[in-house]
């Protein structure tokens, strides 16, 4: 600015400001989320995985309605058939003549649903536990984290077996069992992030302004937590699906005739020497889904990396 | 032959926003016992130019031009050859001594390593020489302290350790990249006094990079002022401080809060530091210069000897008289 | 009605001590870190107090204790005549509308996920919850103009601005409630020299037009010279000297102030070469085991035996200066 007279300069700036204002509407900024979304979309592996995962999910949900075979229809004329085009048995059949393709898709529904529900509960529990511990700090934090440590120490498989044996194998019980052993990672991570946020200057600034604690948590801490929560969710889902598969593989998961990938893998493993397709297709689907989650998780981590900001 | 001769040094970085030219057209010569001060703010390229000379650029960086040490081009050397010179004949000290020292190794280990690698000393004589140098930089109880870890030293002492490490092989050139910026002012005074003494005793040439013109005034013979990766003005310390002939130098000198100044308001240079990915076609300072004209924005001014003093190089389309008027007016408030 | 000559903030013998565990076992004795150990000062309306000291002197802790971001261990803080130590959080809430703070790292003090409209509006939404949205935005835009930001940038995010602009956002946020006192915690240390001058000039102009009092904290005596009326020099949690600006720079009475002033490099080669710097010996003692008597004695070039036995009080030497030194 060239003016010696500050007032005149101010007036000119104000006038210019008004002129520009009327000419240009408010500019919209590039939020950190938009930046991250852009970076994520540039990651080809992540985008492809997202697409593939969406495709698998849609197939699992819609597929069984579109295919002519029912998942529990035993066809004694078509027992243990290898993959063929006839009769729509693209994945072959099992020893009872049930179509493997439909069973895989239905199993996918169950695995994905269990995965989704258990993850949702685990994530919610983890966030609440971790954020509370991190924000309150002190003895409460120490106590809450010791509970987490104890949960880690518990041999989950043993307890899962016990719980299933005592309480039965209903769908919701399987979800609860899995949740109980999957929330600790999220709690720890959220607590760590909350602790580091608490000492950030903008939180201090909010306190200095007199912003009440509740507002600080919801307006400042939670939005800054979402990044890491999203990343860890994509890590938790495959873990949960695997746990369910392990339980089902051990015969403790979903009950017949309902099926899941774990159950199918269990059945397939027992006959893998003679009917290898019974193992390969469900295992293949499971692996593919887990890989997709991995790449998506990697992509999210890179996209939300604070250093890239 | 000059000890260090830099010809048309440039540094480019490949970034998401395209090719960024962080440094362009740096030329200087450094003789034994001389001190050159490179002054600039953020984005001026002052650190990148010496990092390029030492072969320490980031992976996406590339250096162009020549950086001759006794006639050998440092930029063209292979890493093995460069290693013989780095730390040995040309040493560097950095801004933050905490992150430049390995926190997992004792100071002794870090110092003896240098001597063992470059001079082929054995452990015992390396240790003795290290203690000697720690004494020279005035670390009290050097023989006892040498076995300690970096985090057990205070900031000022860590910087002294870095200086001692840099001097282990009696280098001919010492490059100091903002060595006192992270230190308190009383400690800064101690370190500057130390560098002055060491220069007198060892005859080391020093390249001092800083944004603090006060530090430059106390230590440097020659001064180079950078902005937006280019040299704005270059000359002896006296000519820069007493006869600044570039609007940026004038602005910088006016913007510094000085103890010896009266109550006048500080001269503020309007605008913000340059965005290196989007510089104007012409002079990088034209966006903030109060004397700027259309020519300044479109045509890059060449770095030429000034009319009033051929020993001073300046890159400006405006005349020296126009700039002197600017300086005299006590100029512009923003 | 309050007397205009009464100080708006009166701090007496403020102490902030932290308990630090000396060992890992739960039963290891706690040591006390005396960050601030007996500081007293007054601020009057419209004046600027510069607080200067090197790292570890406790100036940042002092700033936070005045706002109760860190609880004071002892001493009194009186705001507008009302005693604030031990006051309810409700009382502090009301006071916070009138005392605001500007921070050292401009970018870090802004929530990266909020557009600056929300950041600047937050004090309004917290303290004046009834204000209609349109009025809030109008005030935000007006304040942005006053601090030199373009109002159309209102929806941009902090990372899209430069350091100097971020600091302007911080200033806008601090001023939007039109407080009486602003505590500036090293507001220009992280900025380039040319931008520093802009921000200092801005603060001075705003102070004049809004009648603000400022506590300006810095580690650089040259920087505070341009903005302060009086200056307080701190060392290891204690006050060394409090003086009016002219007196402090022309004739510093305390050895620490003298050493600090002589150490600051002047951008003038002739002066620098002639200068005799009073180099301080040794290093800063640990705040957990400060020296007995005068805490500065371990580095003072003029220390005598009495300095180790007596803690010097802050004495008024004349109408311009107070110093805590037995020899001043």
Summarize the structure.
The complex is a heterotrimer of chains A (309), B (334) and C (328). Chain B is of the alpha/beta class and 334 residues long.
Describe the structure.
The complex is a heterotrimer of chains A (309), B (334) and C (328). By secondary structure, chain A is mostly helical. Chain A is built from twelve helices and no strands. In chain A, helix 2 crosses helix 12 and helix 10 runs parallel beside helix 11. Chain A is flat and about 95 Å long. The model of chain A has no long low-confidence stretch (mean pLDDT 83). Chain B has 334 residues and is an alpha/beta fold. The longest helix of chain B has 18 residues. Chain B starts with a strand and ends in a 5-residue tail after the last helix. Chain C has 328 residues and is α/β, with parallel strands linked by helices. Chain C has one domain: P-loop containing nucleotide triphosphate hydrolases (Rossmann fold, 3-Layer(aba) Sandwich), CATH 3.40.50. Chain C is built from eleven helices and twelve strands. The mean pLDDT of chain C is 88. Chains in contact: A-B, A-C, B-C. At the A-C interface, helix 1, helix 9 and helix 10 of A face helix 2 and helix 3 of C.
Find the structural class of chain B using helix and strand composition.
alpha/beta
Q: What is the helix content of chain A? A: over 70%
Distance between the termini of chain B: 46 Å
Cα Rg of chain B? 21 Å
- Please give the largest β-sheet of chain B: 8 strands, mixed
The topology string of helices and strands of chain B comes to EEEHEEHEHHHHHEHEHEEHHHEEH
Low-confidence stretches of chain B: none
The structure class of chain A reads mainly alpha
H-E order of chain A: HHHHHHHHHHHH
Mean pLDDT of chain B: 87
Shape of chain A: flat
List the helices and strands and how they pair.
The complex is a heterotrimer of chains A (309), B (334) and C (328).
Chain A: H1 6-23, H2 32-42, H3 44-66, H4 100-136, H5 138-153, H6 156-167, H7 171-180, H8 184-198, H9 201-209, H10 213-249, H11 261-270, H12 277-303
Helix pairs in contact in A: 2-12, 3-4, 3-12, 4-5, 4-7, 4-8, 4-10, 4-11, 4-12, 6-7, 8-10, 10-11, 10-12, 11-12
Chain B: E1 4-15, E2 18-30, E3 35-39, H1 46-53, E4 61-69, E5 72-73, H2 79-85, E6 90-93, H3 97-100, H4 107-119, H5 123-136, H6 142-145, H7 155-167, E7 173-177, H8 185-202, E8 205-210, H9 213-219, E9 222-227, E10 230-236, H10 237-242, H11 247-255, H12 294-298, E11 304-305, E12 313-314, H13 320-329
Parallel strand pairs in B: 3-8, 3-9, 6-7, 7-8
Antiparallel strand pairs in B: 1-2, 1-4, 4-5, 9-10, 10-12, 11-12
Helix pairs in contact in B: 4-5, 5-7
Chain C: E1 9-21, E2 30-43, E3 48-52, H1 59-66, E4 74-79, E5 82-83, H2 89-96, E6 99-102, H3 116-127, H4 133-146, H5 163-175, E7 181-185, H6 193-210, E8 213-218, H7 221-225, E9 230-235, E10 238-244, H8 245-250, H9 255-263, H10 269-274, H11 306-309, E11 315-316, E12 321-323
Parallel strand pairs in C: 3-8, 3-9, 6-7, 7-8
Antiparallel strand pairs in C: 1-2, 1-4, 4-5, 9-10, 10-12, 11-12
Helix pairs in contact in C: 3-4, 3-5, 4-5, 5-6
């Amino acid at each position: 600015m060239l003016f010696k007279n500050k007032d005149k300069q101010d007036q000119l700036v104000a006038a210019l400001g008004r002129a520009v204002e009327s000419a240009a509407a408010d500019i919209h900024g590039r939020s950190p989320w938009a930046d991250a979304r852009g970076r994520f979309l540039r990651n080809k592996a992540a985008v492809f995985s997202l697409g593939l995962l969406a495709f698998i999910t849609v197939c699992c949900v819609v597929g069984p309605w579109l295919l002519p075979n029912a998942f529990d229809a035993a066809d004694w004329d078509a027992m243990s058939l290898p993959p063929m085009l006839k009769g729509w048995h693209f994945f072959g059949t099992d020893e009872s003549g049930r179509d493997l393709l439909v069973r895989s898709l239905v199993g996918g529904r169950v695995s994905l649903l269990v995965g989704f529900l258990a993850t949702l509960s685990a994530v919610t529990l983890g966030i609440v536990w971790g954020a509370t511990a991190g924000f309150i700090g002190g003895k409460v934090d120490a106590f809450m984290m010791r509970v987490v440590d104890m949960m880690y120490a518990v041999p989950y498989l043993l307890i899962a077996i016990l719980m299933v044996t005592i309480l039965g194998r209903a769908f919701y019980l399987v979800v609860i069992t899995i949740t109980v052993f999957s929330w600790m990672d999220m709690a720890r991570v959220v607590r760590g992030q909350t602790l580091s946020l608490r000492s950030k200057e903008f939180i201090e600034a909010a306190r200095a302004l007199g912003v009440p604690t509740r507002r600080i948590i919801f307006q400042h801490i939670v939005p800054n937590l979402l990044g890491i929560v999203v990343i860890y969710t994509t890590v938790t889902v495959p873990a949960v699906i695997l746990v369910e598969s392990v339980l089902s593989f051990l015969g403790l998961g979903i009950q017949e005739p309902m099926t899941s990938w774990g159950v199918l893998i269990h059945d397939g493993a027992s006959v893998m020497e003679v009917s290898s397709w019974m193992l390969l297709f469900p295992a293949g689907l499971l692996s593919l889904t887990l890989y997709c989650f991995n790449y998506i998780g990697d992509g999210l981590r890179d996209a939300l990396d604070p250093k890239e900001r | 032959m000059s000890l260090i001769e830099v010809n048309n040094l440039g540094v480019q970085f490949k970034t998401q926003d395209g090719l960024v030219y962080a440094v362009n057209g740096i030329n200087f010569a450094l003789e034994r016992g001389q001190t050159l001060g490179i002054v600039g703010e953020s984005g001026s390229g002052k650190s990148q130019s010496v990092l390029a000379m030492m072969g320490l650029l980031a992976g996406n960086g590339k250096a162009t031009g020549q950086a001759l040490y006794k006639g050998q081009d440092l930029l063209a050397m292979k890493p093995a050859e460069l290693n013989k010179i780095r730390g040995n004949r040309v040493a560097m000290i950095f801004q933050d001594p905490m992150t430049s020292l390995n926190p997992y190794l004792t100071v002794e280990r870090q110092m003896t390593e240098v001597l063992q690698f470059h001079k082929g000393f054995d452990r015992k004589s390396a240790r003795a020489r290290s203690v000697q140098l720690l004494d020279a930089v005035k670390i009290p109880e050097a023989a006892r302290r040498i076995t300690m870890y970096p985090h057990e030293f205070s900031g000022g002492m860590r910087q002294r350790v870095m200086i001692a490490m840099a001097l282990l092989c009696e280098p001919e050139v010492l490059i100091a990249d903002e060595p006192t910026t992270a230190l308190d002012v009383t400690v800064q005074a101690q370190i500057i006094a130390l560098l002055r003494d060491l220069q007198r005793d060892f005859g080391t040439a020093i390249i001092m990079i800083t944004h603090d013109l006060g530090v430059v005034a106390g230590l440097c013979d020659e001064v180079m002022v950078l902005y937006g990766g280019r040299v704005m003005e270059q000359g002896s310390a006296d000519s820069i401080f007493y006869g600044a002939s570039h609007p940026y130098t004038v602005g910088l000198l006016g913007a510094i809060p000085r103890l010896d100044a009266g109550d006048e308001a500080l001269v503020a240079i309007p605008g913000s530091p340059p965005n290196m990915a989007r510089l104007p076609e012409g002079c990088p300072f034209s966006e903030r210069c109060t004397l700027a004209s259309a020519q300044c924005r479109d045509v890059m001014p060449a770095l030429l000897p000034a009319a009033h003093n051929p020993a001073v190089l300046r890159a400006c389309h405006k005349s020296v008289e126009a700039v002197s008027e600017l300086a005299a007016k006590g100029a512009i408030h923003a | 009605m309050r007397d205009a000559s009464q100080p708006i903030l009166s701090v007496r013998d403020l102490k902030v001590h932290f308990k630090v565990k000396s060992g890992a076992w739960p039963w290891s004795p706690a040591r006390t870190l005396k960050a601030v150990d007996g500081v007293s000062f007054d601020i009057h309306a419209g004046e600027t107090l510069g607080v200067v000291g090197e790292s570890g002197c406790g100036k940042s802790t002092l700033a936070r204790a005045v706002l109760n971001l860190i609880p004071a261990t002892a001493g009194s803080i009186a705001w507008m005549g009302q005693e604030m130590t031990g006051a309810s959080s409700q009382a502090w809430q009301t006071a916070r509308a009138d005392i605001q703070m500007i921070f050292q790292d401009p970018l870090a003090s802004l929530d990266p996920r909020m557009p600056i409209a929300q950041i600047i509006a937050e004090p309004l939404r917290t303290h004046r919850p009834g204000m209609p949205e349109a009025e809030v935005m109008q005030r935000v835009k007006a304040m942005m103009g006053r601090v030199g930001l373009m109002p159309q940038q209102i929806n941009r995010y902090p990372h899209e601005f430069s350091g100097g602009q971020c600091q302007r956002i911080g200033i806008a946020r601090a001023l939007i409630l039109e407080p009486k006192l602003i505590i500036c915690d090293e507001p220009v240390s992280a900025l380039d020299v040319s931008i520093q001058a802009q921000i200092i000039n801005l603060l001075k102009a705003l102070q004049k037009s809004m009648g603000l009092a400022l506590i300006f904290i810095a580690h650089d005596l040259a920087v505070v010279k341009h903005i302060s009326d009086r200056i307080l020099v701190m060392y290891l949690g204690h006050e060394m000297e409090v003086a009016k600006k002219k007196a402090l720079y022309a004739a510093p009475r305390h050895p620490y102030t003298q050493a600090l002033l002589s150490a600051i490099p002047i951008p003038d080669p002739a002066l620098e070469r002639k200068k005799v710097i009073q180099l301080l010996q040794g290093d800063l003692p640990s705040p957990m085991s400060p020296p007995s008597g005068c805490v500065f004695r371990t580095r003072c070039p003029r220390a005598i035996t009495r300095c180790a036995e007596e803690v010097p009080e802050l004495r008024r030497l004349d109408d311009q200066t107070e110093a805590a030194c037995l020899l001043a």
